[in-house]
Specification:
2 domains; AhpD-like; 14 helices; mainly alpha; about 0% strand
Length: about 260
Amino acid sequence: MLHDTQEKLKERFLCTRGVWDEDWEAVLRQTPAYFESYLNLRDAAQGRGWLPPKVQEFICIAVAACTTHIHSPAIRSHIQAARAVGATADEITEVIGLTYLVGIHTVTLGAPILLELMAEERINVEVDAKEAENLDRERQRIKDAFIRSRGFWTDSWNPLLELDPTFFQAYSDFSANASASETLEPKYRELIVCAFDAATTHLYGRGTRIHMRNALRLGATPNEVMEMLEITSLMGIDGVTVASRLLLEQVVQEN
C-alpha cells in the first residue's frame, strides 16, 4: 500500500499521463524522491505544451517502438495515452511505420565507406559506354522523382544511388508511403523522424540535421523542436522502470 505522499505523486502522474503500470509502481515504492524529481523533469519537458498532447505521445511511441529501443511497456502505455487524447488508429499506425526508416542508415553509413575502399583498392566496376549512359539517365530520373515527391535531396543519398539505383528506387517507393500520407501533418512527421534519429540509442547526427531542417522549413518553431528533443531524452527512464520492478520482485522473494 502506498502512503499519502506516494498516493499524491501517483495522482499527479496520472493527471498528466492517465496510464499506470507495475513498473512505475515499483519506482514510486522504492524511491519516491527520485520519482518526484523525474515528474518535475517530465513536466519541464512536456508541461508547456508547445506540441499538442497527442503529438507528444507520438514522439514517445516512435522512440519506444524504434528498432534501436523496442521497449514494449512504453509502447503500450504511450499508445494508450495517445488514444486517450484523441489519436486515431491510423495516426498511430503511421507513427509506427515511420520507425522503419532508421534501418536505411546502415546503407547510408556503409555505402560511402565502400566507395572509399573501392578507390583505395583500385576496384572498378566495368560497364560499357551505352550501359553507363543508361545508368546515369536512370539515376537522374530516380533523383528527380525523389525531389518532386519529398521536396528535398541530401548528398548522403548519392553513394547509394551510385552503387545500387534499383535498391534506392525500391526504398524511395517504400518510404514514400509515409511522405504521401495526409494522416499526420508534415511538420509533425518530420519531428517524429527527427526524434528517433536523435534518440540516445541512435544519435544519428546527419539524419537529425536533415529532418530538423525539414521540420523548420515546414513551419515548426524552435520551441517545438526543443520540446521534441526534451521529450525524446525522457527515454532514459525506461531502464529505471524495468530494473526497479525486477529489484522489487527480488526483495519480495527474499522476504
